[in-house]
Amino acid sequence: MKTEKLKPKLGEGVYTAPDASIILDIPQYKIRRWIAKYWEMDFYDFNVYTWGEGREKGFNFYTLMELIAVNSFREIGLSFRKIKKAHEILSKLMNTPYPFASSKLLGDKKNIFLDQDNVDLLGLDTQLQYSFKELITPYCIKIDFSTKTGLAKRYWPMGKQYSIVVDPNNSFGQPVIKGTNITVYSILNYINAGESLESISRILEIDPKSVKDVLSFKTRLAA
User: 213: which residues sit within 8 A by CB, 6+ positions away?
Assistant: First the structure.
């Protein structure tokens, strides 16, 4: 039986397809297609993952992170059927509606393709498993996981050497400067208004490197 209509929960973030496209650097049309295909159809028998209507349809941080796995699965040519099967089996094994956001898949991938009977639930040969790891690793090294739940809890869209972080417990999960509530978009407003790096740094009381990081992040908005 399907659950009640999902509503945004405090501490889980709020994202739309355009948000996800910028944060994950994945084309928006793919994200819209996958949200409609997987989280509103194939996975919907087990949980309700989205809210809202039309182009403003929203989802939480865990779904945002699950998009990473789906992107990698599709890149290696995995079928819709196998992805649905993997989500269903792993959801039961891990006791979570968000198995693709788990450290067991995104972090330690050694045995995750096997179910409790040691059956290859995805039917991946060695080459495909290797290809999957190659595709997903650049994303995974940007994720912090909860030691309590094993799920993703924080994402560094440009890598941990940069000061921009996506944390569902901070500013509804929008990209911010680490250790602050200052969103990337508020800094971009200053940049677009013609303020200098030094001026922005002084006004917002952040280091100049953080402003430079936002300038690098800005290239995703123009993509």
Answer: 158, 162, 163, 164, 177
